Amino acid sequence: MERVQCLAAEAVSRVLAGRSLDAELAETWRSEATLTVQERGAVQDLAYGVLRRLGFLEALLGQLLHRPPTDALVRNLLQVALYQLLHSKARPYTIVDHAVPACAQLGFPQAQGLVNAVLRNFLRRRAELEVAAAGTDEGRYSYPQWWITKLAAQFPRNFREILEAGNVRPPLTLRVNRRRITREAYLEMLEGAAIAAAPVGRHGVIIEKPRPVAQLPGFSAGLVSVQDAGAQLAAELLDVADGMRVLDACAAPGGKTAHLLELADLELIAVDIDAERLQRVTDNLTRLSLRAQLRQADAGRPEQWRDAGTFDRILADVPCTASGVVRRHPDIKWLRQQSDIKALVVRQARILDTLWQLLGSGGKLLYATCSVFGEENNRQVEQFIARHHDARQLSLPLLADGLKHIDGQLLPDAAHDGFFYALLEKN
Fold first, then answer.
1. What is the pLDDT of residues 313-340, one digit of tens each?
2. Which candidate, 352, 97, 160, 100, places its Cα nearest to that of 247?
3. Above 90 in pLDDT, residue 304?
4. Rounded (5°) CA angle 237-184-268
């Protein structure tokens, strides 16, 4: 257990220093090649769990520590151990007994006494400490205060459920490839494999107990793809039909690209600035036996990649704060700064204005983000329409189909993440 605690603490430490959790865990798997599957799973669960509940854990440590440890990594180890004490099925004293030598393994043997004292003090006073830790907004919700304040102002009736939805483990949601199999037939395959599942949306399936995709029937053969139910709405909202010329801007990792191609026979160009992420688009399309023209370039600079002609449909899934997908990426809560929003809004507007010029008359552009912040969503669209008198915002009847949304803002809940959609038609 000490090795798992150490690696989880190191991962959390580097995330709080500015690294993404996905990148950090990938580096851990490369450098720790002898980890078992179970150990990898444990490290990942602890790192994700600590970052989901970091505000509460910090509120606990604020009461337990008279002064900060000399090294931040010791504090991260304490966060990991406290998370285990709160959420693990392991015996409390086993967790403590492993955390103390883990401190020495991290290179801080002088802090073993401190770690032992803090954790045992927590066990003695757990009830009162938990009540006090939940007494502040950051302790109760485990988000930075600016984030909480912003959502409370923008969604006074819903901000609590938005925050709480971001702190639960996400479901494993699949999109059934309708070119290869019906959803009903795939649900029967799952039943035959003793995998409990339920339908969601028009083509989605939620697996009751998440598992590695290699264990899912038909995954390697391209029968299904992993995609959140909220993200699956994008391709359907764009209203594509056979023969259309379609642009998927900012396309990586390719889930929406593939879904568009599953829905219709299209001339599709997928653009993304990141070569490594664009390779994931290639991998996804290859597994699904689908084809598109892939271009590595900045979608907002069409002189780098475009050819002659306009597009019938454009998917503008623009860079954003990703504030709607924090349950899948809890590091975002602590990496994102309030000052980032302004720069992202400027970039989004530039991409929108540029892509609009590429849309043919009568064509449709779907503006999409995985954010819940109004500056990136409704306000961005309102300002765009004010600049472009040939733009008309269309209704989204698909979002009225049992989905909780506010003017195109899909609120995160147990079934899906938080997304924003606005469908614009060129007069």
1. 999 999 999 999 999 999 999 999 999 9
2. 352
3. no
4. 35
The 10 Å Cβ neighbour count of residue 360 is 14
Cα 222 to the center of its chain, rounded Å:
23
Tell me the backbone φ, ψ of residue 220, rounded to 5 degrees. -65, -25
Q: What's the distance, Cα to Cα, between the start and end of the chain in Å? A: 63
Residue 404 to residue 402: CA distance in whole angstroms: 7
d(CA 153, CA 144): 15
Residues 6+ apart with CB under 8 A from 279: none
**Which residue ranges form the domains of the chain, and what is each CATH number?**
2-142 (1.10.940.10), 172-226 (3.30.70.1170), 233-426 (3.40.50.150)
C-alpha–C-alpha distance, residues 227 and 238, integer Å: 17
Short-list 245, 249, 236, CA closest to 266: 245
Q: What are phi and psi of 366, to 5 degrees?
A: -100, 115
Question: Which residues are part of the catalytic machinery?
Answer: 370
